[in-house]
Design brief:
This protein has about 150 residues and is mostly helical. It has five helices and three strands. Strands 2-1-3 form a three-stranded mixed sheet, covered by helices on one side. The longest helix has about 30 residues. The relative contact order is 0.11.
């Protein structure tokens, strides 16, 4: 009888080991099939799903923004400024002719409360940014838009 119990215990251990191996296999396969963690914006070749890259300012700083932001009034205004600056050329990335600090200001506020700040137009963001900058004595003359055409490759 004791010998039979040892066999049953060994069979149980074998079954448990087999179950454990199957779980590890599934976990391992699942990890391989998951998309890799998004790389930092500066190193990624493709934007994460649902995002797109825009290049901002004369230094062409790259930002990954949610594609839904393009429907907001502030981005409509930025795209109008881009059209005035560059025309409707379709080659290369989307370049926005504004200062990097101003663009970061827009993105920060949209991420904080998209419902509230998503309704603001470009002019309202410029006014808000100018008011914030006027609080600092060193920033008396706020420049939001910069001509980029001189830096563009022809």
């Amino acid at each position: 009888m004791a010998g039979a119990m040892k066999k049953v215990d060994k069979i149980r251990q074998i079954v448990r080991l087999k179950q454990l191996m199957m779980r590890w296999k599934h976990i391992s396969l699942r990890r391989r099939s998951l998309p890799p963690e998004p790389e930092p914006c500066s190193a990624a070749r493709r934007p994460p799903s649902g995002f797109l890259f825009v290049y901002v300012g004369p230094e062409r700083k790259r930002f990954a923004i949610p594609a839904r932001f393009l429907n907001l009034p502030v981005f409509s205004g930025l795209l109008d400024e881009t059209e005035e600056e560059f025309g409707l050329r379709g080659n290369g990335g989307l370049v926005l002719p504004c200062q990097v600090g101003f663009f970061r200001h827009i993105i920060k506020h949209l991420h904080k409360d998209e419902h509230k700040y998503g309704k603001l137009s470009l002019e309202e963001f410029v006014k808000m940014f100018s008011e914030m900058a006027s609080d600092y004595p060193c920033k008396e003359n706020v420049v939001v838009f910069v001509p980029l055409l001189q830096k563009a490759e022809v």
